[in-house]
Specification:
The chain is an alpha/beta fold. The strands form 2 sheets. It has a 7-stranded mixed beta sheet with strand order 6-5-4-7-8-10-9, with helices on both faces. A 3-stranded antiparallel beta sheet has the order 1-3-2.
């Protein structure tokens, strides 16, 4: 079989075969599709910049209530007429907008979900740093992150000397913590849909940021109480947030280093939401061991994050997150099987993948700490 596939690839690589296939009616559509796919890969950065520009001038919200003429858009978008026309037509070409009669522009089915979607729009803007890091992908692959913007944006990953994660101030972590809070709903929606929490009493959210997930859980499950564990600067922001929204009697944030410090005990449910893919295997093993030790016997762990080789979303794992985490300076995308193995090593049992409506955002693994040690 391999020899046939290699022969096929040599044939397709032949210029004369490509010319013949382009002209033969039964193969012409295949060649055109392949050419289009290759062009889209090459032009992908341009498409993302069109999306970024639309976001920066607020095109999606301006069109939220319906189609507008070019003249009406001119009054609301701070671009010169020629620049605005070029942006609108580009957005139509990549299906973010549609053009209607009488020179009117409207949202497309792909553009409509972006209206007021802080999570996605914040990520689009944040990616400007990522794109700068990718300007020299070979240097990045060789391990040179000296000028990587993401490396600086996530200060807990590779802190400066003397600025270990547990010593970072609230001011230093505010930007990334805010981004995490805005985008976390993309993952937490999957958890809320996949796992009912009625039977639990106390939740430990590890690496929970400013408490956006806890706020949602508290609204849905009034009986639950919460502990949040994150680095001290983030925990400080979290406790202020809990106080501001009237949750300080039910939720408490504790600061520390979850690789080195014991986690708060007494919880029967722990959550790790987009945490382990930021870290290497050695650290993940230590973290999962710490979670296991903190949980009550019989307690449950929910681990949620995008996973590599997710069927239908393969490019998201090793391609997107593979390079994003490389620019950050640590961590890697993992498959479901790899994460299952790490959970099992830590002592968790009954590992199962829960149903996820949007696996692109996250998949959720549920597992338990045995009631009897060693069981």
């Amino acid at each position: 079989m391999e020899s046939f596939l290699d022969w096929r690839n040599r044939l397709i690589a032949s210029h004369s075969f490509q010319r013949w296939a382009t002209r033969f009616p039964l193969t012409r559509w295949i060649v055109r599709k392949q050419a289009s796919d290759i062009f889209d890969l090459m032009a992908g950065f341009v498409y993302t910049q069109v999306l970024l520009a639309c976001t920066q001038v607020n095109v999606f919200d301006i069109l939220a209530n319906g189609a507008l003429s070019f003249d009406d858009l001119q009054k609301q978008v701070p671009l010169k007429p020629a620049g605005l026309r070029r942006l609108l037509d580009a957005a139509v070409a990549i299906k973010l907008l549609v053009k209607r009669d009488e020179d009117r522009y409207a949202l497309s089915m792909m553009g409509a979900p972006l209206v007021g979607n802080i999570a996605i729009l914040d990520m689009v803007k944040h990616h400007a740093d990522f794109y700068r890091d990718l300007s020299d992908p070979i240097a990045l692959l060789q391990g040179d992150t000296s000028s990587a913007a993401l490396n600086e944006y996530w200060p807990y990953i590779t802190p400066e000397q003397g600025a270990a994660p547990e010593n970072l101030s609230a001011e230093k972590v505010a930007d990334y913590s805010r981004l995490m809070a805005h985008t976390q709903s993309l993952v937490t929606d999957e958890i809320l849909d996949a796992y009912p929490m009625d039977k639990h009493q106390m939740v430990l959210d590890i690496g929970g940021g400013q408490g956006a997930f806890i706020k949602r859980l508290a609204n849905r499950y009034p009986h639950l109480t919460f502990k949040l564990f994150d680095i001290p600067g983030v925990a400080e922001l979290s406790n202020k947030h809990f106080s501001d929204i009237g949750l300080s009697t039910r939720a408490q944030a504790v600061g520390g280093n979850f690789f080195q410090d014991p986690l708060p005990k007494g919880c029967d449910l722990a959550t790790l939401v987009r945490v382990i893919f930021d870290h290497d295997d050695v650290r993940v093993r230590q973290l999962l061991t710490n979670v296991f030790n903190a949980l009550n016997p019989g307690g449950t762990l929910l681990l949620a994050e995008p996973m590599a080789e997710t069927k239908g979303f393969e490019a998201m794992g090793h391609a997107y997150f593979g390079f994003y985490l490389l620019a950050m300076g640590r961590g890697r995308p993992r498959t479901e099987a790899e994460i299952r193995g790490l959970l099992s090593e830590a002592g968790f049992t009954g590992i199962q993948l829960l149903n996820s409506y949007m696996p692109l955002n996250a998949q959720v693994l549920q597992c338990s700490k045995p009631t009897i040690s060693g069981a």
